[in-house]
């Protein structure tokens, strides 16, 4: 996008509708290129994680007023990918390959194309306290603009060298510096594609199913580190944040105190795994003590029978609806990254309701038979 800016074919403060035909004349078309690059478009994290590949006015509808707040959304970069295609008259893969990867010499890198590539490292997802291999899976071409560059540590080092060399090459020195400065007053810690630290560091992480990465640079010192991990973090167990950050910090000579033992996250996962078992045991207990359940009467008795159904139903709503919103991603998408967590969440939500219904039916059916 910055190359197109310097070529005079894109303006940072023009509305996206000027370049993307699907959004021309729509309210979303007023979102500027700068706002998309800096995640101040008003589009949300959830929208970015559930957006379809096809851009329409219905899928690109800001939840917040553009330019008023910062919120990371992959949808911003999906739209920018479409801008690149419209303006350059090339598909996204061809443009990036021809104008970025090949000139830098990133010969072991490519844009996700929807195919299986045997030389790629095998990705791993979290599986309770360990990891599970994903096998040979195809890359995802639909999400290429938001993070679909497959690369190596060596090739990424070449890219980072280009970003820090202070020279006019793929982009002017001023253009590179602009990317690594705060984009606006509402984006003090994010530039045009980079997070910005007060100490002069710039960084960005990346997460795809089975893979995580960290790129961290200090342009003034012309030092940087890239860490690629072929695994996605678990919940408490097998998290890779400390691994990636500690390696990068050691390479850069930066103090890093770690992430702590993560006891809460570990306890949460263990609890989610055990709760369905507790509900199952409680169902057995309810059956064996059905006489006591049948004997419940009056307001207090009925309350004790029906209230668990209410609480477990609310809990199921929280787990299946509210928690995904907190993560900023639908459950089906979260499953691609943390299948164990999603399985535990669904099992807990479902078994809670099943237990309360089973308990209620045992009491009502046996009570009816007694009458």
Explain this structure to me?
By secondary structure, the chain is of the alpha+beta class. Helix content is 47%, strand content 10%. It has 13 helices and 8 strands. It has a 4-stranded antiparallel β-sheet with strand order 5-6-7-8, sandwiched between helices. Strands 1-4 form a two-stranded antiparallel sheet. A two-stranded antiparallel sheet has the order 2-3. A hairpin with a 2-residue loop joins strand 6 (202-208) and strand 7. Helix 9 runs parallel beside helix 13. The protein is elongated, with a radius of gyration of 26 Å.
In short:
By secondary structure, this protein is of the alpha+beta class. The protein has helices spanning 2-6, 33-37, 45-50, 74-88, 92-104, 153-164, 173-179, 241-252, 263-288, 290-294, 298-327, 331-337, 339-370, and strands at 110-111, 124-127, 130-133, 149-150, 195-196, 202-208, 211-218, 223-229.
């Amino acid at each position: 996008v910055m190359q197109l800016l310097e070529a005079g074919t894109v303006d940072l403060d023009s509305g996206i509708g000027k370049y993307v035909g699907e959004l021309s004349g729509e309210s979303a078309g007023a979102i500027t290129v700068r706002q998309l690059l800096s995640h101040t478009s008003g589009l949300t994290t959830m929208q970015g994680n559930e957006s379809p590949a096809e851009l329409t006015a219905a899928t690109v509808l800001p939840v917040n007023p553009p330019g008023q707040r910062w919120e990371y959304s992959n949808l911003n970069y999906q739209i920018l990918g479409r801008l690149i295609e419209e303006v350059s008259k090339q598909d996204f893969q061809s443009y990036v390959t021809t104008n970025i990867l090949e000139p830098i010499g990133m010969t072991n890198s490519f844009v996700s194309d929807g195919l299986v590539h045997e030389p790629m490292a095998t990705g791993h997802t979290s599986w309770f306290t360990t990891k599970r291999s994903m096998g040979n899976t195809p890359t995802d071409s639909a999400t290429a603009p938001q993070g679909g560059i497959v690369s190596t540590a060596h090739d990424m080092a070449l890219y980072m060298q280009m970003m820090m060399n202070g020279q006019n090459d793929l982009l002017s020195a001023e253009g590179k510096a602009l990317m690594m400065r705060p984009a606006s007053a509402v984006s003090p810690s994010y530039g045009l594609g980079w997070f910005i630290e007060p100490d002069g560091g710039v960084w960005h992480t990346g997460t795809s199913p089975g893979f995580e990465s960290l790129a961290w640079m200090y342009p003034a010192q012309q030092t940087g580190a890239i860490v690629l991990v072929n695994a996605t973090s678990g919940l408490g167990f097998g998290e890779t944040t400390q691994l990636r950050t500690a390696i990068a910090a050691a390479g850069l000579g930066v103090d890093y105190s770690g992430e702590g033992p993560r006891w809460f996250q570990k306890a949460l996962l263990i609890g989610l795994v055990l709760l369905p078992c507790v509900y199952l045991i409680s169902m057995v207990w309810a059956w064996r003590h059905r006489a006591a359940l049948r004997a419940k009467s009056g307001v207090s008795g009925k309350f004790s029978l029906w209230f668990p159904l209410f609480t477990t139903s609310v809990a199921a709503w929280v787990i299946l609806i509210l928690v995904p919103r907190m993560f900023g991603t639908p459950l089906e998408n979260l499953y691609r990254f943390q299948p164990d967590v999603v399985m535990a969440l669904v099992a807990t939500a479902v078994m809670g309701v099943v237990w309360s219904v089973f308990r209620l039916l045992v009491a009502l059916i046996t009570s009816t038979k007694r009458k």
